[in-house]
Amino acid sequence: MSELHLLSTQQLITGLQDKQFSSLELTDHYIKRINALDGKVNSFITHTSETARAQAKAADEMRVQGDKRPLLGVPMAHKDIFCTQGVLTTCGSKMLHNFISPYDATIVTNIDKAGMISLGKLNMDEFAMGSDNESSHYGAVHNPWHLDHVPGGSSGGSAAAVAAGFVPVATGSDTGGSIRQPASFCGLTGIKPTYGRVSRFGMIAYASSLDQAGSMGRSAMDCAYLLQPMIGHDPRDATSIKYDMPDYVQDLRDAAASAGEKPFAGLRIGVAKEYFGTGLDSEVEQAARAALKQYEELGATIVEVNITDPEITLATYYMLAPAEASSNLSRFDGVRFGYRCENPKDLIDLYTRSRSEGFGPEVQRRILSGTYALSAGYFDAYYTKAQKVRRIIIKDFEDAFANCDVIASPTAPTAAYKLGEDLDPATMYLGDVYTIGVNLAGLPAISQPVGLTSNGLPIGLQLIGQYWQESKLLSTAHLFQQHTDHHLQHSTIAKETV
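Above: the chain sequence. Below: its structure as tokens.
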């Protein structure tokens, strides 16, 4: 029982079905670990332990009565960007330090219907703006592999909680790599689905044309289990798209069952020189190329493709995303909900002080740059031109996929860096250089662990797929994980027993 947190989601499901342990025992195991160890990691903002224990007891009773939902009684946790009825929803910001959501996000409702047990809300970069989880009003999150390093962001709390063994899986959101980069930094698998695959209703918006919810776990199968109840059309979300509903878990089982000695025979993996250029750490490049070599040995064919220069993609993203953030965050004005300054002199003072006191420096920086891009006289020169370049980025991906099935790259140019490093904003933004093109194009992508640095820090490989090809990405990662053990390595905190 002391190592329940090291089991996969499939093993937890089997254990519950075979009555090796109850949902209440499993939930108590995770709660005990969180209470004992999260002081070192700071992955949670809000704990819902009592509610979770009540849900677990109910799940055990339902299982006795014949309820066969596979995820019934399995614990998880939500990134604090998803609204949860009756529970604090902060988005990692002082601006929402007192916001109790009156409704659930659609994915929260769907995961509840699957019978999962929520242990609380996870820390994140403020309003999902950041790549290191140091901008949170609730303090920095620490990487469970090396506590003096960042876990990545903005879904750093989600990544750290899974890597520390506080939950088997967690939700995340990805605007420019915010699931994939922390998955890479924390030795996890994380998937960002096709834009429109998962409802954004109840997910507090950063950049509406880029944001997409996804799942994080130690393996592709873990991600498939959590992603399954998240997907589907939602009439409350105008960007939600009606499309075929795959069975991800069954797709992975089928892929494994039909795999031969060369499971990737016929798979064409596109590799772009643009992803292996200046700024890529040598150990990260070595691990990525070694993983690609393993794919080749297992039957895949490596083909050369061309994509838009990542530096152009980076500039485009940091023109469009802050512009959308400027618009989305205008609702936080100190009037209707959230933080309100004390004793305002007049309406202008209320607006100015509430926003300057409620938002942190990184959020203010992005609002200001976005407002500038949208202002009269600069809209066409910056925002409109960036949208035109976005179309070129999409076209370049389309051309690349004419010659390959998936595109591979390092997930991030480096492994996790140390907490408190004095990085200027431009340097921090470069951490997203391999991931943001996927969001601009609306494509699905997955990060999987492929090794460790000499200092014992995880390294991730990103696979990018064509629209709606989440099953292909998950299956590709799953088959790779059947022949490697990178996803079976555990962080320092996960190895601790309590």
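DSSP finds 16 helices and eleven strands in the chain.
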